[in-house]
Amino acid sequence: MSPQKRVKNVKAQNRISQGSNSFQTTLSAWKVKQGPSNSKNISKHGQNNPVGDYEHADDQAEDALQMAVEYFEKGPVKTSQNKDKTLEKHLKTVENVAWKNGLASEEIDVLLNIALSGKFGNAVNTRILKCMIPATVISQDSVVKAVSWLCVDKCSGSTKVLFYRWLVAMFDFIDRKEQINLLYGFFFASLQDDALCPYVCHLLYLLTKKENVKPFRVRKLLDLQAKMGMQPHLQALLSLYKFFAPALISVSLPVRKKIYFKNSENLWKMALLAVKQRNQGPSPEPLKLMLGPANVRPLKRKWNSLSIIPVLNSSSYTKECRKKEMSLSDCLNRSGSFPLEQLKSFPQLLQNIHCLELPSQMGSVLNNSLLLHYINCVRDEPVLLRFYYWLSQTLQEECIWYKVNNYEHGKEFTNFLDTIIRAECFLQEGFYSCEAFLYKSLPLWDGLCCRSQFLQLVSWIPFSSFSEVKPLLFDHLAQLFFTSTIYFKCSVLQSLKELLQNWLLWLSMDIHMKPVTNSPLETTLGGSMNSVSKLIHYVGWLSTTAMRLESNSTFLLHFILDFYEKVCDIYINYNLPLVVLFPPGIFYSALLSLDTSILNQLCFIMHRYRKNLTAAKKNELVQKTKSEFNFSSKTYQEFNHYLTSMVGCLWTSKPFGKGIYIDPEILEKTGVTEYKNSLNVIHHPSFLSYAVSFLLQESPEERTVNVSSIQGKKWSWYLDYLFSQGLQGLKLFIRSSVHHSSVPRAEGINYNNQY
Amino acid sequence: MKPPPPKFKRFSCLSLLTSWDYRQTMDSYDVPESTPSASSRPEDYFVGATPLQKRLESIRKQTSFIPTPPRRKVPQCSQLQEDVDPQKVAFLLHKQWTLYSLTPLYKFSYSNLKEYSRLLNAFIVAEKQKGLAVEVGEDFNIKVIFSTLLGMKGTQRDPEAFLVQIQSKSQLPSENREGKVLWTGWFCCIFGDSLLETVSEDFTCLPLFLANGAESNTAIIGTWFQKTFDCYFSPLTINAFNLSWMAAMWTACKVDHYVATTEFLWSVPCSPQSLDISYAIHPEDAKALWDSIHKTPGEVTQEEVDLFMDCLYSHFHRHFKIHLSATRLVRVSTSVASAHTDGKIKILCHKYLIGVLAYLTELAVFQIE
Question: Are residues A381 and A235 in the same domain?
Answer without folding.
Answer: no
